[in-house]
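Q: Okay, next protein. This is Glyoxal reductase from Paenibacillus borealis. I've checked the sequence twice, so it should be correct. Can you predict the 3D structure?
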Amino acid sequence: MKHLTDGTILNNGVVMPWFGLGTYKAEGEEVAKAVTTALELGYRSIDTAAVYGNEEEVGRSIAASGVNRDSLFVTTKVWNSDQGYDTTLRAFETSSKKLGLDVIDLYLIHWPGKDKYKETWRALERLNQEGRVRAIGVSNFQIHHLQELLKDSDTVPVINQVELHPRFIQKELHDFCAQHHIQIEAWAPLMKGRLQENELLKNIADKHGKTVSQVILRWGLQSRIVIIPKSVTPSRIKENSEIFDFELSQEELAAISGLDAGERIGTDPDKLLF
């Protein structure tokens, strides 16, 4: 992990960058400028979702960037209200048109929801088989969701995108995914800025001449976690990407992991039941 474009090989052989831009709750011109800035800085992975309401702007910025499509990795997700076999296929067509892309690099089930994720997964398998999607995965799935999915399908998700940061490292889930060759990806890797005043992180940051955010993101990379920090501020988009010129020691990695307190800031997947 020496460069911004370095990637991990997913379980189906597709290469995905370790680092990308998240676009949650970013809309209109704001998200368009953020994607443009990120691509100009060398980002090659962009994460969006149908429910974010910004696929069209993301797609326009990608098209206007002049970056070769083959070097980009675009992720989007099917929302709960579209779960089910036929509805997922229709939702994919909508996302594809909004993004202006015939092929999506990674398509995820956004949340397990109540009881339709197996039907949704069959639709994703079809899209993958038809070449409309290069890789398929899940988001916010807990161990029991993954176990249920794997009971009825030989297709192992390439990714499980979940809330993960130093206060919520989800070790059991991470270990389960590693055993099944499912790459863990972190949303809210910076805990939405709530760790900026942590003394341990500040001390490590000072030692390396880096910011707390850069230390957290470097910890994620060295823990073999795909990370997609969200920002719409050009200076922070740049700062977040400047994490490939230093390395944390094993002692520092362990100390940061020791901050784990099971502190979730997002929704519990077992409680988002629709």
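A: Here is a summary of the prediction. The radius of gyration is 18 Å. The beta strands are 7-9, 15-17, 21-22, 45-47, 73-78, 104-109, 133-139, 159-163, 183-187, 226-227.
Q: Noted. On to the next one.
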